[in-house]
Design a protein that fits this description.
The protein has a single domain (about 10-100), classed as L,D-transpeptidase catalytic domain-like (Beta Barrel), CATH 2.40.440. The mean pLDDT is about 95. Strand 4 (about 40-50) and strand 5 form a beta hairpin. Helices cover about 15% and strands about 30% of the residues. It is globular, with a radius of gyration of 12 Å. It has about 100 residues and is α+β, with helices and mostly antiparallel strands. The strands form two sheets. A five-stranded mixed sheet has the order 1-6-5-4-3, covered by helices on one side. It starts with 8 loop residues before the first strand and ends with a strand.
Length: about 100
């Protein structure tokens, strides 16, 4: 395959690892609240490994630098687009590739 989309993201800050590799989405939630981090909102969550997800963030000024607890954060518009793409094409036809 070839990359189809590339968006500016934030991944794990110091002390918080974002898993690398190739993943298929495992579940999706229009709105999810973190059970681990004080019910932090995670709009347009696409989970790919356990509790790790690609989701929207309001901290858009931090995009492009490590800032999360391990999830992959996207601009809200990009996260909504990504969520819609996964919904349209299906998790089985979606691959999330995370590299350092």
């Amino acid at each position: 395959g070839r990359p189809t989309f590339a968006w500016k993201v934030s991944t794990g800050a110091k002390g918080h690892v974002t898993p690398t590799g190739s993943f298929k989405p495992t579940r999706m939630h229009q709105m999810w609240y973190s059970r681990k981090y004080d019910n932090a909102p995670m709009p347009h969550s696409v989970f790919f490994k356990g509790g790790y997800a690609v989701h929207a963030t309001n901290f858009v000024k931090r995009l492009g630098q490590p800032a999360s607890h391990g999830c992959v954060r996207l601009h809200p518009v990009d996260a909504a687009d990504f969520y819609q793409l996964v919904e349209t094409f299906g998790p089985a036809n979606t691959r999330i590739v995370i590299v350092k």
